[in-house]
């Protein structure tokens, strides 16, 4: 329970935690941010790490002058791209070991199934859409590798989705994080960043599975 409490404190008070890290460790903060984004996108067993909320707070700290905008933008985008590339090749070459071995207990089969359904509905565009959906964001590149998507196609959508995700969420933090109302309600906003995309992802998958989504336009995997 102590570890769970500490994790929840990190997630829902990430503004305070990140400012303390910047104050205590200076430029080493960039390495920590890079590592968290890389692991959140790169390992199918770590979808619980903060993604959107971390990027929002990084953008806010850039607006306050505590972090460099160019450095944060470049490092976060690079971490997101490299993380998905690792996850993709893990899905391609190690999927059977992960799913059937001892690590399989850490992989949520329901989220895996939802992500597979997203690919069936939206094809490679899932890699861009999934960037804005917690949990599915971590599973999408793994499923792409599992389904043997063309490597060049994956890299193209991966890079585009990563840059769009990082730039947009960092910019939200940069612009809106300076507003007094936003700073006074950061906890609610962080909750929204976590829950709203997840609910939309589940709702979209349910519509696809029950036949409510009648769109005839489906993109192929290659």
List the helices and strands and how they pair.
Blueprint: H1 2-12, H2 14-25, H3 28-42, H4 52-63, H5 69-93, H6 95-100, H7 109-122, H8 126-129, H9 136-146, H10 151-176, H11 180-184, H12 186-209
Helix/strand order: HHHHHHHHHHHH
> Termini separation (Å)?
45 Å
- How many discrete structural domains? 1
Largest sheet: none
Radius of gyration: 17 Å
Approximate helicity band: over 70%
- Total number of helices: 12
Report the structural category. mainly alpha
Low-confidence parts lasting 5 or more residues at pLDDT below 50? 214-222
Number of strands: 0
**What's the average pLDDT?**
78
Q: Per DSSP, what share of the residues sits in E-state strands of 2 or more residues?
A: under 5%
Tell me the quaternary state. Answer: single chain
The shape is elongated
Task: Give a description of the structure.
This protein is an all-alpha fold and 222 residues long. The protein has one domain. The protein is 74% helix and 0% strand. Helix 3 runs parallel beside helix 5 and helix 5 runs antiparallel to helix 10. The protein is elongated, with a radius of gyration of 17 Å. The N and C termini lie far apart (45 Å).
Quick summary:
The protein is mostly helical and 222 residues long. The chain is built from 12 helices and no strands.
Task: Record keyword descriptors for this entry.
elongated, 12 helices, 222 residues, mainly alpha
């Amino acid at each position: 329970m102590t570890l769970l409490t500490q994790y929840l404190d990190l997630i829902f008070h990430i503004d305070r935690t990140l400012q303390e890290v910047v104050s205590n460790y200076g430029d080493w903060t960039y390495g920590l941010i890079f590592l968290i984004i890389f692991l959140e996108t790169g390992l199918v067993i770590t979808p619980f790490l903060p993604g959107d909320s971390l990027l929002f707070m990084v953008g806010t700290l850039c607006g306050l002058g505590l972090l460099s905008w160019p450095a944060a933008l470049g490092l976060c985008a690079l971490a997101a791209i490299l993380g998905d590339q690792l996850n993709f090749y893990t899905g391609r070459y190690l999927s059977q070991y992960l799913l059937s071995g001892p690590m399989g207990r850490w992989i949520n089969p329901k989220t895996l199934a939802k992500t597979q359904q997203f690919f069936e509905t939206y094809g490679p565009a899932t890699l861009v859409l999934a960037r804005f959906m917690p949990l599915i964001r971590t599973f999408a590149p793994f499923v792409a590798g599992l389904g043997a998507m063309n490597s060049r196609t994956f890299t193209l959508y991966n890079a585009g989705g990563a840059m769009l995700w990082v730039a947009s969420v960092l910019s939200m933090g940069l612009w809106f994080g300076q507003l007094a109302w936003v700073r006074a309600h950061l906890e609610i906003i962080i909750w929204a960043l976590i829950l709203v995309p997840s609910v939309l992802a589940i709702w979209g998958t349910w519509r696809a599975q029950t036949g409510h989504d009648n769109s005839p336009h489906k993109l192929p995997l290659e």
